[in-house]
Design a protein that fits this description.
alpha/beta, globular, five-stranded antiparallel beta sheet, 42% helix, binds guanosine-5'-diphosphate, 466 residues
Length: 466
């Protein structure tokens, strides 16, 4: 069946990467032999896959259009006065990526319960200075409105999520942040809508990431001014494919939520991307060598000042806004300029061919999600390398996998598995092994990543019910 074929095709690619990670860890000198062989295998998988590219692209496009139409309809009720609404306060005290994810969560609740989402952006952290308070909020300056007809949150009766069984009777419902929603509904990430799940699982290797990408596509429609700014920067940088996006997140994140990584750790994967591309080109009989272009986004100016030179000498070209890192670091002033800067970075990272970053940062996860919504509609879930975490959504329900093969622990830090066991996955060590807990035996430890597959949860979404 299509499903079997697609799952197997994608697993083949993932497993080659897992094998490669294992080899790199366990063979002292990774020989050009192994690297070329790996890339040659990947080339042939891509070639074999191309036969169905057209179908895959068409189907993903149809699914995207369907989701966008449904959200648009929800957001433009015939009568705003009597519409059922969900109010989302853009007041979460955190960075840009974190706030966009807060909005995504609100939209998910909207979609699952068929309520028009009304965003209260008055208290948004990016509020600019007081003189602006009678004017548009920075959200309104940066993005198009979420509705043409329904932006006001009035209506009766009004209540909050905690109002229990009466919740549904409220015309207007106020939503708390994801960390404090009680009772917790079953449709929050990493759950996907049941109504589109079988299609989506067939078409995309990370269904929840695609789904969140679609929500972001709707939420983050750049205003005319921001669109202009993005275009001007693309031109100024000569932003062109092929290009790898590198996001280096440091400053306040280091030693609180993430560890320090030198640029050289990122560049290992940039170089692997271009080596692969070179081999692909050879296999296609293309003679020219590819320019090694990198879009660099960072909150640490010293990456530009001290770390890129070594790679420029090796022929890499770095583009990006030097100024950005300053604005981000210096107190994050929450001006429209600093907002435009972070939007620019997220946007251009999402338009690269490959992302190297730390998934502990919401900035990079945001770019990765948006990447899935870019046109043409292609499954881009493998186009990244994260130096630390696997993908997650802040406040997500437990992330489970299922054992496809039995596994006998080979050492005391490994866990054993029986086919069908549910494994709560905590991370990938990027050496062939993942870490997690066997929910059957409660054992915690390492297991070979290729022996498990994602266990994808789905739940009904009102929005997709006809
Ligand atoms: P996280 O803290 O990295 O998980 O992501 P958040 O988006 O929640 O907060 C990070 C904040 O740091 C952003 O809102 C930006 O203000 C700033 N920042 C981090 N990385 C970059 C970057 O590459 N470019 C710019 N312009 N700002 C950044």
């Amino acid at each position: 069946s299509d499903l079997e074929y697609e799952l197997s095709r994608r697993k083949l690619k993932t497993d080659i990467n897992e094998l490669w990670n294992y080899i790199k860890q366990n063979v002292n000198q990774t020989s050009p032999f192994l690297k070329d062989l790996k890339n040659s295998l990947l080339y042939d998988i891509d070639t074999i896959s191309r036969r169905n590219d057209h179908w895959r692209r068409n189907e993903l496009e149809k699914l995207s259009n369907y989701v966008q139409e449904r959200i648009t309809k929800l957001q433009n009720p015939e009568n705003c006065q009597s519409a059922r609404k969900l109010v989302c306060n853009l007041n979460k005290g955190c960075g840009f990526g974190c706030q966009m994810h807060h909005l995504v969560y609100c939209m998910i609740v909207s979609m699952a319960t068929s309520r028009t989402l009304v965003v209260n952006s008055k208290s948004w952290r990016y509020v600019g200075n007081r003189r602006m308070s009678n004017q548009k909020s920075l959200w309104e300056l940066a993005f198009k409105p979420l509705s043409n007809s329904c932006l006001d949150d009035s209506g009766n009766p009004r209540g909050n999520w905690a109002s229990g069984p009466n919740r549904d009777h409220n015309k207007v419902l106020d939503l708390p942040i994801i960390d404090s929603i009680r009772p917790r509904p079953n449709y929050l990430p990493l759950t996907i809508p049941e109504e589109i799940s079988s299609k989506l699982i067939t078409l995309h290797g990370a269904p929840i990431v695609w789904f969140i990408g679609q929500i972001l596509k709707f939420l983050m429609k750049p205003s005319t001014e921001v669109e202009k700014y993005l275009n001007q920067k693309r031109k100024q940088f000569s932003f062109n494919s092929p290009i790898v996006g590198v996001h280096v997140r440091r400053t306040d994140k280091i030693n609180t939520e993430a560890s320090f990584h030198s640029l050289s750790e990122y560049m290992v994967h940039v170089s692997e991307f271009y080596d692969r591309l070179d081999l692909f080109n050879q296999r296609m009989n293309k003679k020219e060598t590819v320019k090694r272009l990198v879009y660099l986004a960072t909150d640490d100016i010293s990456v530009w000042k001290k770390e890129i030179q070594k790679y420029e000498e090796k022929g890499y070209k770095f583009i990006g806004d030097y100024e950005i890192s300053n604005t981000a670091t210096v107190g994050r002033r929450y001006s429209f300029d600093s907002l435009k800067n972070i939007i620019l970075d997220v946007w251009l990272l999402s338009e690269t061919d490959y992302l190297v970053c730390t998934f502990s940062s919401q900035v990079c996860r945001l770019a990765y999600e948006l990447m899935q919504s870019r046109v043409p509609h292609i499954d881009r879930h493998m186009d990244f390398f994260s130096l630390d975490d696997i993908y997650y959504f802040g406040g997500q329900s437990s992330h489970n996998q299922i054992a496809l093969l039995d596994h006998q622990a080979q050492s005391s830090n490994e866990i054993s598995m029986k086919i069908g066991d549910i494994i709560g996955i905590a991370g990938n060590h990027w050496n062939g092994y993942s870490k997690g807990v066997n929910r059957e035996t409660k054992e915690n430890g390492l297991f070979p990543g290729f022996k498990t597959a994602e266990r994808i949860e789905s739940a009904p979404f009102d929005l997709f019910q006809d």
